[in-house]
Design goal:
The protein is about 5% helix and about 20% strand. It has about 325 residues and is an all-beta fold. It has a domain of about 100 residues: Sandwich (Immunoglobulin-like), CATH 2.60.40. It has a five-stranded mixed sheet with strand order 1-8-7-3-4. It starts with a strand and ends in a 70-residue tail after the last strand. The relative contact order is 0.07.
């Protein structure tokens, strides 16, 4: 089977034409045999007028086909027969689309392999679902993955095995500003879960599990508690840990210039700005240690101060 390019003129070799009587003597002096020819496209035959005709060698002829001869993709048969002069000559071709011919035969193009279906569903109109074991996407010039959802989650990630995360994100450690996850949105991040809606762990002792920076008029982290069937949930729950002689706080706050490390405001009509409960035993509900000539606690109390108020021998109220 020989290949032809769709709607493209071509010169093909036809033959050998041999004597009708002995079956082997080459017929080298034949003129244009269009009158004795037939062109059959995918089973439909018709007369043919060739573009050119010239003897090449030992009964083989160079025959010119026009763009009209090769305009139909599929099977093409070129046949000649003169009962008085030569025995039947048949040549079969396959007409390929231009992209296929250029890719397979000429090598001047690549096959166009657009994905039109997944599991029988058309990809046009966002109808198909692609199930993969693993996907590796790399883009050095822009966003590697863009996800948009109109009535659901942009990304829904679920870990099916205990001990693994629904999504694992890691920033480039070679860059000081590279994050595993960066959120720029009206709500930078929204997370819920039966256990931890979001679990972040820094891979190095000098990096933060979460780095949150608010806008000029917004909070870096805004946590709101909800009331459930078993009581009240916490907007934020922090646990410190102790390793050997080192104690690590659940929350470490460093204030900027002329700003408070923590600012707590009560509810509009009622509620404490801050409520602190000791964990049990002989632990303090609040332990404050001043620096230099500063007081352990500097408070402007307009209401009543109740409970046991004490401190170390160097503790100071100001």
């Amino acid at each position: 089977m020989k290949f032809l390019r769709q709607s493209t003129a071509a010169t093909v070799v036809v033959g050998p034409f041999v004597d009708v009587t002995d079956g082997f003597t080459a017929e080298a002096g034949l003129t244009d045999q269009s009158a004795n020819g037939r062109l059959i496209k995918n089973g439909t035959g018709g007369a043919i007028t060739v573009s050119s005709w010239a003897h090449d060698w030992n009964g083989q002829y160079l025959v010119g086909l026009s763009t009209a001869h090769t305009d139909t993709v599929g099977r093409l048969r070129l046949a000649f027969y003169d009962v008085a002069t030569y025995r039947p000559v048949v040549e079969d071709f396959m007409v390929l689309p231009a992209n296929s011919y250029d890719s397979i035969v000429a090598g001047s193009d690549v096959l166009q392999t657009d994905l039109t279906q997944i599991d029988g569903l058309a990809t046009s109109g966002n109808n198909a679902t692609l199930n993969l074991k693993q996907l590796n996407v790399q883009n050095s010039a822009g966003d590697a993955v863009y996800v948009s959802a109109t009535s659901g989650h942009g990304i829904y990630s679920y870990a099916g095995t205990a001990g693994y995360s629904g999504m694992y994100l890691r920033g480039n450690t070679a860059s000081g500003t590279s994050c595993g996850l960066r959120c720029d949105a009206i709500y930078g991040m929204y997370s819920t879960g039966n256990y931890a809606g979001l679990h972040c762990k820094a891979s190095s002792s000098s990096y933060s599990g979460i780095y949150a920076e608010g806008g000029s008029g917004g909070a870096g982290i805004k946590a709101i508690a909800n009331q459930g069937t078993n009581g009240y949930g916490m907007g934020m729950y922090l646990v410190g840990r102790s390793y050997s002689a080192n104690r690590h706080p659940g929350l470490l706050v460093e204030s900027g210039d002329n700003a408070a490390g923590i600012k707590a405001s009560g509810g509009v009509t009622s509620g404490s700005g801050m409520e602190i409960l000791a964990g049990g035993g002989n632990s303090d509900g609040l332990k404050c240690v001043g620096s230099g000539t500063g007081g352990d606690i500097n408070a402007d109390i307009t209401g009543n101060l109740s409970g046991s108020v004490g401190g170390s021998s160097t503790g100071k109220w100001t």
